[in-house]
From TrEMBL:
<comment type="similarity">
    <text>Belongs to the Nudix hydrolase family.</text>
</comment>
<feature type="domain" description="Nudix hydrolase">
    <location>
        <begin position="37"/>
        <end position="170"/>
    </location>
</feature>
<protein>
    <submittedName>
        <fullName>NUDIX domain-containing protein</fullName>
    </submittedName>
</protein>
<dbReference type="InterPro" id="IPR020084">
    <property type="entry name" value="NUDIX_hydrolase_CS"/>
</dbReference>
<dbReference type="Pfam" id="PF00293">
    <property type="entry name" value="NUDIX"/>
</dbReference>
<dbReference type="InterPro" id="IPR000086">
    <property type="entry name" value="NUDIX_hydrolase_dom"/>
</dbReference>
<keyword id="KW-0378">Hydrolase</keyword>
<dbReference type="InterPro" id="IPR020476">
    <property type="entry name" value="Nudix_hydrolase"/>
</dbReference>
<dbReference type="GO" id="GO:0016787">
    <property type="term" value="F:hydrolase activity"/>
</dbReference>
<dbReference type="InterPro" id="IPR015797">
    <property type="entry name" value="NUDIX_hydrolase-like_dom_sf"/>
</dbReference>
């Protein structure tokens, strides 16, 4: 069953997202006003070495919470998801990837938002220097992969893109 968009207008926008008002027709023929967020795509990197994963301890002011996250950020115009993941990794942690492979892709809220999340993995990194993004995290640490399930259970990892990336990694490690 497919919904049809007959029209779309901007309610509010900035450089990262746009709130939209849509004129949609449902499969049963009923037309209604629908609101959605059009947001830039996000790229992230899961970095592992020696049975450890590189994580950042961050404060998210909107939810006023602290948690561990993988490096991530918006894909810039003309940039590939893979290049964005590599750039964000280096800017936020100071570690440079020598090659990334796709780990998983998700659409975290496809009913209301069109942003796609691309998660890449690398096992080959070298330290390039201190992070250039100084407002991203308080700590950057290598955490044993064996601790990740317990950290998720204790809500020390709550970011959707981080959860999906780490859980996919753990699934692949089991097979």
């Amino acid at each position: 069953m497919r919904w049809v968009i007959h029209g779309e207008g901007e309610v509010w926008t900035n450089r990262w997202l746009s709130v939209r008002r849509l004129d949609v027709e449902q499969p049963d023929g009923e037309r209604l006003e629908y609101h959605a967020v059009r947001m830039k795509d996000i790229a992230a990197a899961v970095v592992t070495r020696d049975e450890q994963v590189l994580l950042m301890w961050r404060h998210r002011f909107l939810t006023d919470t602290w948690a561990w996250e993988i490096p991530m950020g918006i894909i810039e115009p003309g940039e590939s998801p893979e290049a964005a993941a590599a750039r964000e990794l280096e800017e936020e942690t100071g570690w440079r990837a020598d090659g990334l492979t796709e780990l998983i892709q998700s659409e975290p809220a496809a009913g209301i938002m069109d942003s796609r999340h691309f998660v890449y993995r690398t096992t080959n990194v070298r330290y390039a220097g201190p992070p250039t993004e100084h407002n991203e995290s308080d700590r950057i640490e290598w955490i044993p992969l064996s601790k990740i399930p317990t950290m998720i259970t204790r809500h020390e990892i709550v970011s959707g893109i981080t959860l999906i990336g780490l859980q996919q990694l753990l699934l692949l490690e089991r097979t």
